[in-house]
């Protein structure tokens, strides 16, 4: 019996050593942006524009206008974590708006940096409790905003714009929120209209001030929400109407689309709302 135990022990030891020797080393997954760039280069190589920014290479999906006359340029900023071919309406707009006379540029969004404030976290003390900031910290939101604006600026500097062209920015989700903050600071750029779709900021403090921020945006603003957006967006949208009255922003319009942002019918209505708003300018 003792001999069998010794043999069994030796067999288990050999198997455990083999399993340790055969274990694969940990390999970091490729960034989402790099995978997107590879896919876009494979299927849309003739429509891609590569931009060099301080944070690396960024890809833009370009589609030229296809109507008899050109109306302008539309820059599309998908929400955080979404690519230029976002199924939440922007992929549809990138093609549909070309039939309405616009060149479209669908910009790639930055990689999310969840460790942006890794070295800035203050330890909680008995007299100072740590306050929950929301899904994103201030540092993470600032990092995303900085990278997005860097990509936008690189694209904007390359645009060839005439006096007759309308320059329109369509942004969604978190991108709409941070770009609103940028426009509220009155930058020296020429934008004829700003379309915000389901604008939000995943930080409690910053999102609280978003209604006031949107009322300070200089270009005419079309604020679009969906009936199935989260309750935070709907509550925030009610406050926006109050703030635009307070700050006398008369070129503000808010529209609610009923249904999911991925539904083809809502994509068509989104296009109609956007086209109608731009024709009134």
Automatic annotation (TrEMBL):
InterPro entries: AB_hydrolase_fold, DUF3530. The lineage of its organism: Bacteria, Pseudomonadati, Pseudomonadota, Gammaproteobacteria, Alteromonadales. This is DUF3530 family protein. It comes from the Bacteria. It comes from Pseudoalteromonas caenipelagi. The keyword Signal applies. It holds the Pfam family DUF3530. SUPFAM superfamilies: alpha/beta-Hydrolases (SSF53474). Keywords: Signal. Residues 1-21 form the signal peptide.
